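Exercise 7.
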Amino acid sequence: VAQDAHADGQSVVTALGDALKDSDPAVQAFAVQNLADRTDPQALEYLRNAYQGLDPANRMLAVETAVQDEGSQQILQDALQDPDANIRATAAELLKQFGQSNGGTNPDSK
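Solution. The predicted structure, written as tokens, is:
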């Protein structure tokens, strides 16, 4: 039974990962929120891989929800290179809260 539950969970993650490619931003937002809520490394990998293809609102959503799980901080690191200044600023602020801005160094400690 536990194996079936794991297989079902993987199916959900795969479906959410596919939803990130949908042309409807609302479908993408649903997928971002649900993948970010999961602790499954595959869910975070889907988010990281799809990040650049998302619209700015959904990239911001991915950045804001990344805080919920420390394993998703790589999304915040990636967001530091985002073309949108608001997303970069949000990512920098959130990383600063974790003490990991600028590639893991705190600029205030210099």
